[in-house]
Amino acid sequence: MLKPYILSFVALFVAVDAIANIPIFLSLVEHSTKPARKKIVRDAVVTATAVAIIFMFVGRWVFSLLGVTISDFQIAGGVLLFVIAVRLLLPGAQKSALTSCQDKDMGVFPLGTPLITGPAVLTTTLMIMNSYGTVATLVAVVSNMIFVWITLIKADTIMRVVGSHGTRAFSKIMYILLAAIAVMMIRHGITGAFLQ
């Protein structure tokens, strides 16, 4: 009974990769006061959650409008996820390209989107919604965003415990899992296209 919820959570957890965002978050809020940090975290989590949930319900409608099938999206989304995972695995290709942003709305951009809820999260959200249903996906989105909120609030402590090398190692493992999920999505998409 819990299997759809667990699988949905794990797939989205890998796509969100909250631990990898900690060094980026700390570099963005380096000169911010404690109240400002809390506001940035709140803005980031609210934005990321809203974007993911809106896409959950609007994404399928957009696809039907464009004549795109779920199999088409699985193949395209899988290829996109695989490219993202490979790029992040390569040396020097990190999310930190956006760390130069020092804007008062950094909670919305780049933190909320695309760092927390980016192409990988949107693609995964639609895929798990198709596989495990709306309720399981909604629970996965909300629980993952709560985890993101906790990691950002406790970012300094986590960095002291895990260290920069630890966060990088964890991220690499997450990117490999993301690549594996991408291959699975492509496989399901091709299978679904042939069975139609």
Short description:
It is built from eight helices and no strands. It has helices at 3-16, 21-28, 34-66, 70-89, 107-116, 119-132, 134-153, 155-195.
Description:
The protein is mostly helical and 196 residues long. The protein has one domain (3-13, 48-195). Helix content is 82%, strand content 0%. It has eight helices and no strands. It has helices spanning 3-16, 21-28, 34-66, 70-89, 107-116, 119-132, 134-153, 155-195. Helix 2 packs across helix 8 (155-195), helix 3 (34-66) packs across helix 6 and helix 3 runs antiparallel to helix 7 (134-153). Residues 96-100 have low confidence and may be disordered.
3D shape: globular
List low-pLDDT spans.
96-100
Task: Specify the helix fraction band.
Answer: over 70%
Strand content: under 5%
Measured between the Cα atoms of the first and last residue, the distance is 29 Å
- Computed over alpha carbons, the radius of gyration is 17 Å
In total, how many beta strands?
0
**Major sheet description:** none
Total separate domains: 1
Arithmetic mean of pLDDT: 85
